[in-house]
Amino acid sequence: MPSKKNKPTEKITASEKVNELSADRENSAGQLMTTNTGVKVNDDQNSLKAGERGGTLMEDFIFREKMTHFDHERIPERVVHARGSAAHGVFKLYKPLSEFTRAAFLNDTSIETPVFVRFSTVAGSRGSTDLPRDVRGFAVKFYTQEGNFDLVGNNMPVFFIQDAIKFPDLIHAVKPEPHNEIPQAASAHDTFWDFISLMPESTHMILWLMSDRAIPRSLRMMEGFGVHTFRLVNDAGKACFVKFHWKPLLGVHSVAWDEAQKISGKDPDFHRRDLWEAIESGNFPEWEFGVQIVKEEDEMSFDFDLLDPTKLIPEELVPVIPIGKMTLNRNPDNFFAETEQVAFHVGHVVPGIDFTNDPLLQGRLFSYTDTQLIRLGGPNFQEIPINRPVVPVHNNQRDGFMRQTINQGKTSYHPNSIGGGCPFQAKWAEQGFASYAERIDANKVRARSKSFFDHFSQATLFYNSQSEAEQEHIVNAFSFELGKVEIVAIRQRMLGIISQVDQALAEKVAFNLGLEVPKKPEQPMNHSIPADGNPKDFQPVPGKSAVERSAALSMANTVKGDIRTRKVAVLAADGVDINAVNEMMKALTAQGAVPEIVAPRLGVIRHKNASLPVNKSLLTAASVLYDAVYVPGGESSVVTIAGNKDAINFLNEAYQHCKAIAFDTDAQVVWEQTSFGEMFPDHGIVVEEDPVKLANRFIGAIGRHRFWEREAEIK
Ligand code: HDE
Fold this sequence. Notes:
Catalase HpII,  Chain A, domain 1, 10-stranded antiparallel sheet, 6-stranded parallel sheet, globular, binds CIS-heme D hydroxychlorin gamma-spirolactone 17R, 18S, Catalase_clade2, oxidoreductase, Catalase, hydrogen peroxide, metal ion binding
């Protein structure tokens, strides 16, 4: 839960990084057009020709330059996390963390550290939908006074695999199948589940992926996790272990799976648009930054290995301490220059933050620079404005494609005497980075620690921690995903794995698939075995989580009641009770919600001499793009709405997706036309005569986010 210090930030000025970028901004307003060499262009409409009907001349340097630049506009998309949206912001520390780390930005509460944050889906291409069932990337670049620190995390606290060497396999399995490039941005296909069914270590992550965490309502309503255990090192050189957390002030919320699929068609940019609009309207997204600290001497005191990235530390064992707040307050000026060219790297750390031997983390330390070299075209990607630190860079690295820096002097080596020995190495006291001197005494082996072999107990912990509705969603997600798998043996193998998490869960999924849960899990269960390994030595080892249920794992326990930025459709037509609409819009807007009038056609809706502008027509709007619906009274308006099948469908869908719906008493005729017209209204359906009571109850209902319990009624 976010702490008391988390009051919304009023207004934040541009960060140091945003100001620094101004040197690179271009603005054509009021300017003459030029070529790239600065020559003013007189005709941008016609190429140079040998006569009006003749061939284009090679001499036309203006045409050649324009076309060549266009021909080279594309760069490779990220091999994973290709689809992303980003924003600038700032991080403010609540209280110094000097006991644990010497990182300056975690020691000085007066510093406002600029950040650039990129959210992403993992599997889809750059142009894919925002709403697949997928993990979301949550990558934060802190431009600190000691260089850049990148916290390249996800919205789930664990990962699919334990060793980086399996990452290419995992990604090959989840990406569209190589022979026909189908399906786009979806895990529901044979190769993904084939791989997963052979990799029991992925089970915990799979439970998260099958949960509603994989279909967020908004990028602003997701948690973020550093996933790996990192190290913090204090000024005395003493280290402790740390897990990093981001907790959104608006709470963690999701959409329904049916809704996610429909949003993908109606507005594939749903999350990108939502983030953009929130920032443009001054509703700055905010997260609290939290840490779970484990003393070095307690490393071995858990029933799981801190170095195993398929495990989380239950908050019941180690609480998350809120240490600061991040606010995103500015949209990028240019998608390509900033969001596309930003280069994150889990190895970008600052003094006071260090790595552990988590084998996934260790492999990532190689991959991120390597991938930028191909994606951004060479070793000078750190000089791209968005990647540049806000502090000066001095070293003996030189040259390469697209070098921007003009290094002065004649020495580019160290030690040197000609250059006075510059640049100097920084002492510890000068905040020079010195790797933590962990003691290592071991044989060189290709191996996996036995302490990594309990693959199921935290998957069970996660499942047990979910509310009834959330558990039901997991059943449905497994049934959907495995239902799309064509090879029955894969479904069967997955049922064997799911039965290790929870027998009842496996049985429900098996029922939906028309299969039986295998009596005994297929042996061997783990197929990720070296050539000379004995399968018996690689099978999962049953374990038991010290914690049986963890409240933090269920979204049912998240922050509720805040309706800021929630979108509300007001379904109306000519003849609407304009006073009622105005009252409701005023009440909603006062709470920060965003009401929009949706009518059968664009223009205005009228009643007597008054009129209201229509925001969307039923043709362009869809209920999946709103959080709630209000049907005002007004005799001819309610008759029109009641007789409009798109409007009734709008309401039916909102009901099916468990949203708050409000009716004026004299709009009951509309309600009667809906699929839920016969039912006793639940708490999410509000009907009131008194407009003030109606607005208050409706606002309360929107603040609940969803009435998932309604799903039981719908069946
Ligand atoms: Fe990444 N990951 N990853 N990853 N990852 C990339 O780097 C990789 C992992 C994450 O918005 C790539 O610049 C390996 C875990 C995010 O630009 C690449 C392994 C977590 C982003 C890469 C992992 C992440 C990436 C592709 C297993 C959460 C998007 C483009 C050892 C803690 C950053 C790029 C952005 C991107 C490799 C596992 C998060 C190829 C080898 C675990 C948020 O370098």
